[in-house]
Amino acid sequence: MADAPSDAPALPRPVLDLAPDRAAAADFYDYGDLLTDEETATLRRLRSYLAEDVAPLVEGAWERAEFPPDLVKGFAALDLAGLPYGLGEGRDEPARRLFLGFMHAEIARVDPSVNSFFGVHTGLAMGSIHAGGTPEQRERWLPSMARMETIGAFGLTEPHGGSDVAGGMETTARRDGSGPDAEWVLEGDKRWIGNATFADLIVIWARDADTNDVRGFVVPSGTPGMTITKIEGKTALRIVQNADIALRGVRVPDDHRLSGGSGTFADAGGVLQRTRANASWGAVGTQMAAYELALSYAQQREQFGRPIAGFQLMQELLVQMLGNVTASLGMAVRNAQLLDAGRGSDAHSALAKEYCASRMRETVAWARQLVGGNGVVLANGVARYFADAEALYSFEGTREMNALIVGKRITGHSAFVR
Question: Domains in the chain, please, with CATH?
């Protein structure tokens, strides 16, 4: 195909305004004003890093389905990974869930895959050790994970177990020996494990062959018998390095079994509630980006002699998108406030994830619609969020499963069937 004439008018290239001193244009009701000055300053540092070092990389990385390794060093320099647990320079208590939510929204606004990487490490992997580990285990692993010198992954989902993985878990753990020299032998398979290809340790959940309880085990990468294979050909979250994990006679010492808390899968329940709430914020950030890119495009794209932003149908579409973003952000904010006050529940987080992800799916589709045929071109930005939204819609509990969690709470009847 011949190159376009040099005097051809340039096509619009929508952009996100990532200036660190300005809140996202999609925060129409200024929910960011709920943050403290210190939290706002931290968020500005994050925005600067995202604008300067992350945004320029993600389009190419997404297309190549690669994770840029320098992102680990960049996030480490920000000293954010330990925030949920009060770990890090000058900290003695966890950050507010409200601030952590805005942090995840900002990362997802630049790239949902990068937010998924950060959430797996800080939420699922670190959260499992914090909730289920003994004080000694926490001290052994969490400080280096907070510094991001050690990267974590979370091995729960299985080839035959997604929504029902806790009840139908096939991976087993068999105790071999007794006393301090005892080991656990892990057998089974895990699937869709984010960060697994480059993680230093993976929290593997397995069913105790003797008690039938589901327990967590910290398995270092390179442990004999553990094979990690990257999942290829994804059409969403392509920067996330999801993998299949085969466990064949994998031996870990007894002190790698998470034995604090209840010592069972119940410890993971609180972790999943936290990450489900975080997923709602990721859906908010994804919507924000789609709306802002669509708005930028509409202001540049001309048809019939004027910008399409001046057409009634385009304005109506943008307002619907902004309404979705605003309603989702309001729900995520209130859920975080309830969690900070100790009044949040699984049902609250489930409703937030279900609603925000559903509205996100509408918003990214409307953004793609507004940008027209150009909306399927990666360089226009919208296409990446449109594709990634499909994965966000399903993980951390599908819409249907989260609906049933809320349904049980409001009716008093469980509709789950085994």
Answer: 31-146 (1.10.540.10), 152-256 (2.40.110.10), 266-411 (1.20.140.10)
